[in-house]
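Lab notebook page, bench 4
Experiment: in silico fold of construct C2
Operator: M.H.
Input chain length: 152 residues
Purpose: comparison with the prior construct
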Amino acid sequence: MEPDRVYMELALAEAHAAAARGEVPVGAVLVDELGNILAQDGNRVIEQCDPAGHAEMVVLRDAALRQANYRLPGTTLYVTLEPCAMCAGAMIHARIARLVYGATDPKSGAIRSLMQLGDDQRLNHRFEACGGVLAEECGRLLRNFFRQRRDG
């Protein structure tokens, strides 16, 4: 199995764990250029009463602390949902090399859907982005979560 699918499956497992905690089911995994996992987690907005507690932010913070450096060059971030503007901005500041995401987010996606922040020539850093990895599984998890909330 190709590495992108393997790491996205780990991100999906984090999304399932987030859902079990009552969080919106989004998971993320950050790996270095050798494929070593630097951090992995899911949304923690509710648990931490933190509007910036998105999975991407949690993982970037954790990896930066572990690396003792807020710059994370050469890394790839895997996330189950297309990142928002806040998370895309953090990726730019962290200097990640690559983003791989699952489902698109037509309401707040800042990588392809509403904005293209990772590839904006006006900014001082750009990163490669690849969407659609395990998109059906990632999208189904989110749809089911919100359907249960509406019905429950």
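Observations: Residues 97 and 127 are 5 Å apart (CA to CA). The first strand starts at residue 27 and ends at 31.
Next step: discuss at group meeting.
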